[in-house]
Amino acid sequence: MHPKYIHTIDELDNLVGLPGKEKREMEQVCQTFPFRANDYYLSLIDWNNAHDPLRKIVIPDPRELKGGGSLDPSHEKDYTKLPGLQHKYQPTGLLLLSDVCGGICRFCFRKRLFVNCERETVKDVSRGLEYIRTHPEITNVLLTGGDPLILETSCLERILKELREIPHVNIIRIGSKIPAYNPFRILSDPHLSEVLSRYTTVEKRIYLMAHFNHPNELTTQSLQALEQLHRAGVIVVNQTPVLNEVNSSPETFTTLFRTLSFSGVTPYYVFQCRPSLGNRLFQVPVEQSYHVIQQAWQACSGLAKRARFVMSHATGKIEVVGRQAECVFMRYHQAAEKALIGKFMVMKSNPHALWFDDYREIPLETPVPRKVWLF
């Protein structure tokens, strides 16, 4: 099966039928933020349910136009060393291989790739590969975009081959939502599995960083695609933001964590939704997100609760590690400045905080209230 891609609201209307007012609102949104999906993913939506979670993920919403947020909330441009190459954390290099995805998530933190004329991805990655060759501190490379699995397998193979010829690159990661948006990309192309199998080795693995945001995305076809990746020797982990009206209940996250772990996929990161332009409708306060995850874990085994809850801040990945009645505890899980890695912070509780910048740090010499907030 090869899903048909849909790029306009007219095409969506022809497929599912839209009320006139709703269609006009979607078209207005698309003047700012483009739309892309396919008939497979759209078939998973219950069109009689205005609150269907997959509908929220991919269908334009007029609330996106209410403003607020940034096109580059994590200041990625500050860490762009070459076109298509970012180097923020010492051991990690990012290659942006594509500005196309299997679908456009409405909450995308890198939506500037779709709305700006300035290109940040490159077709010729030779300069980026040369940068990685000359920086031996880079032990792992993340292929991202857009979605690398949008590329032709032969193109992806050339990049994997060159990376595997760099001795200090031990891990190759591929960030992709294709297993959710279009599992047939994996199921219908045996050459892709052959290529991945060739370049993932016992000592140097390829990791697929999947993006399942809701249990309804874990269809029979998606699970089959994940199994095919496993058979190829690829290690699959999952990351998702907490998203208002999509997965912001403990029950949903419990099901997501459990289903992933049952199928051999490690929950890796749960992100606080980044304050990108148009993302306000998806943002959940930090402390509420933390509460949702803690509640979800109560029905999970240890294997299902290995994710870290982090904010991908401009300065680094800041993990939320605990909460008391008046305080939130955080630490730098990773940081652009090496000296910050592991730094522990006590922040004054702010139930309305949506991002790290909304918090005020309490000096460590200040006594911390001892009343513990129990979940």
Kindly state the mean pLDDT as a whole number? 95
Gross morphology is: globular
Helix share, percent = 25-40%
Q: Provide the succession of SSEs.
A: EHHEHHEEEHHEHEHHHEHEHEHEEEE
Low-confidence stretches at least 5 residues in length (pLDDT < 50)? Answer: none
Class computed from helices, strands and strand pairing? alpha/beta
DSSP summary: helix tally: 13
End-to-end separation? 46 Å
Strands side by side in the biggest sheet: 3-4-5-6-7-8-9-10-11-12-13-14
SS elements, strand count? 14
Question: Radius of gyration from the CA trace?
Answer: 21 Å
Which sheet architecture does the biggest sheet show? 12 strands, mixed
Can you give a write-up of this model?
With 375 residues, the chain is α/β, with parallel strands linked by helices. It is built from 13 helices and 14 strands. A 12-stranded mixed β-sheet has the order 3-4-5-6-7-8-9-10-11-12-13-14. It has a two-stranded antiparallel ribbon with strand order 1-2. The termini are far apart.
